[in-house]
Amino acid sequence: MKKFKFIISLVVILTLSMPVVSSANTKEILDPNEIRELQSQILDLIVNENESAVNELPLYQKYQDIFNSNPDLEKDYINNLDVNKWDTSKIVDKFNVEGSKIVTLFEDGSFSILENNLTSEDGKEIEATPTMSARGVVQDTGEQTYTGSIGQTFKNDARHDLWGVYKIGELHLVTNYSINSGSAKISSTTITGTKATFPAAVSGNSSIVTNNARIVESLGEYNFASTCPGGWGTCSGRYYDISTKINIKYAGNGEITFTVRSIVSN
Question: For the whole model, what pTM was predicted?
Fold first, then answer.
């Protein structure tokens, strides 16, 4: 697969205020230059489909150690991430990766990724034809085009990841459905896979909005919350919705053409 090199010049100067936290024996200061470098390294690995190598990065290991020994520092860091606050005025870039992942990059170097993962009933991953056009709400995959046969069943996993110097959360909307020549039918929905890395927390639910029609829709609703320093209650929360629409376009020659589009809003 063709690799995409992350261009650091797209990122403006870090504006995140970095706190100082004291413990009994140590005082750690978050280095904004190191954090920016680590976030660019992480994004580069993810863009090139090598996320498993993130935990091998020396800076990743360094900041894991820092946060493990300074939990209040970690909480304050997560609370202040641009991607956690989702301040649209601090979005510096949006771009597609191989027509399947939508990356939103913020001023402080944090970022999110939205993608649809479509699999058939035998678990085989299906790639969309290159007709996607992102429309940008908060994040929008645009309409991704697929083909199938009458009665065939699919599972679509709309996945929205939130990243700082590590992944702070994943939001999933899983939609199971079948297609016919004039309609689609959703059999079930779930938010399986949705999780947050402590000290953040996430809860949510899923539902079917429209069913047994040419255009059907599923919905996931989530509350992504940050924990206050010291562990007392919740400092801030962000509500997200993910909607997935399946649209039957046309049938012919034994094949059904349909599109899948997932949108994140808050």
Answer: 0.74
